[in-house]
Automatic annotation (TrEMBL):
Keyword Heme part of the UniProt annotation: no
One GO process term, biological-process aspect: methylation
GO molecular function, one term: methyltransferase activity
Protein keywords: Methyltransferase, Transferase
Protein name: Methylase
The UniProt record lists the keyword Methyltransferase: yes
Lineage: Bacteria, Pseudomonadati, Pseudomonadota, Gammaproteobacteria, Thiotrichales
InterPro entries according to UniProt: DUF938, SAM-dependent_MTases_sf
Gene3D superfamilies: Vaccinia Virus protein VP39 (3.40.50.150)
Amino acid sequence: MKPYSGACDQNRDPILSVLEQLLSDASTVLEVGTGTGQHAVYFAEKLPHLTWQCSDQVQYHEGIQAWLDEAELSNVLPPIALNVSEDKWPETRYDALYSANVMHIMHWENVVDLFVSGAKCIKENGLMICYGPFNYDGQYTSQSNANFDQSLKMRDPDSGIRNFEDLQKLANENGLKFLHDIEMPANNRTLVWRRAASTT
């Protein structure tokens, strides 16, 4: 049986509308934290000009592959093993890195590794696109986000909604220039950075 996330169905069209604009000139995307595989097959079908590379920890691969097998799309690739802090990152450079609802599940050191290694996987002038709930100046943007953060920390004290300012610092340290903070439904945001062109 394929894994299923109701949240993926609920947020896919708002995210698609953003990706259509951001990735109109792109050809390759690395998705970090593919999860069930629902986003991968939906976006690959709706954006056929993209080659979509799935990645996640190995225990999720069977479920992802079940979605890929059913969709039979030529532009979505089988998942590669990627624990951001443990596995070797791909040597391929992508036009964009996409990640949805991942950073609040990770420990902070994993978030750091996502930016450090992820930036190296993006081509010059390529994009890092991150969707999910974020805090600003240490403050929740809604009571529902505060409740969600508490539930995350009950399961894992090292997880939780991340502060935009902390992520922006990581981005700056890794050659990523802030582009957009896009308001999304259900108190989520899409944050976008562009990898700076080399000056050497």
